[in-house]
Amino acid sequence: MDKFEQIKGNYYQGFSLRISEELLEKVKYLAIKHKRSINKEIEFALEQYVKEN
Q: Residues 3-52: pLDDT tens digits?
């Protein structure tokens, strides 16, 4: 356990992602529709993909 986990309890590691403008616009649309941030929308989509595979 690193010092961030000890302090915050639920520490998320940063991660850079390069995607096309077209895909980003679609993700933005979905994030607004689902009342989530873009980051949370991407996280949700990844979680769903991992569950199904």
A: 555 555 667 788 899 999 999 999 999 999 999 999 999 999 999 999 99
Position 1 in a domain: no
Total tally of structural domains belonging to the chain: 1
* CB of 2 closer than 8 Å to CB of 10: no
What local confidence, expressed as pLDDT, does residue 7 receive?
53
Which candidate, 16, 15, 37, 17, places its Cα nearest to that of 28?
37
Residue 36: partners with Cβ closer than 8 Å, 6 or more residues away:
44
For residue 27, the enclosing domain spans 19-53
Give Rg (Cα) of the chain: 14
